Amino acid sequence: MSHCRKSVRFHKLKIIYIFSTAFLFGFLVSPPGGFSAECPQPRKTAAAPQEFYNKANPLPDSPQNIESGQKLYREKLKPLSCTFCHGEKGDGQGKLGKGLRVKPRNFTCSQTMKSIPDGQIFWTIKSGTSSGMPAYKNLADEQIWQLTLYLRQLAK
Ligand code: HEC
Fold this sequence. Notes:
The chain is mostly helical. It contains seven helices and no strands.
């Protein structure tokens, strides 16, 4: 009997030990921005003017268009690469993005992306945001629509 109680106590200690090491380890290795990207994510972005907001993407979501969009997303665009803020994976955890007060959109979060129409995405890329995203005035409309197609399939 006494042997049995002893082993129960030992078992409890083991559990406490495992939990506290896991916690400490998680604390030490976690990035300053938190454990993961937020989802659903609050949106501070202003709504696009009606004529943009209701625009549908005129391009088909073909593999070629999506690939072109992916290239643009990763390229060195002027003034700044999308990945700088939105991250390689599009989760909003880019190097610069982590430091911004308003967090860049997490494109992998389908709950949030579902609420953003194509025209709103197009307009944001074309005109930027007051929260720190630059306007991409050098991109052709077709390129912006290709980017939009690429972002869309990140949340699928
Ligand atoms: C300097 C950092 C930065 C860069 C570079 C950047 N963004 Fe953003 N982006 C943001 C911030 C900040 C927001 C706004 C989040 C908010 O207002 O809630 C945002 C929002 C967005 C949104 C969401 C719009 C909405 O209505 O919710 C889209 C789409 C987007 N960016 C696409 C892009 C694309 C594509 C590129 C590259 C061509 C890019 N961004 C480059 C910081 C950046």
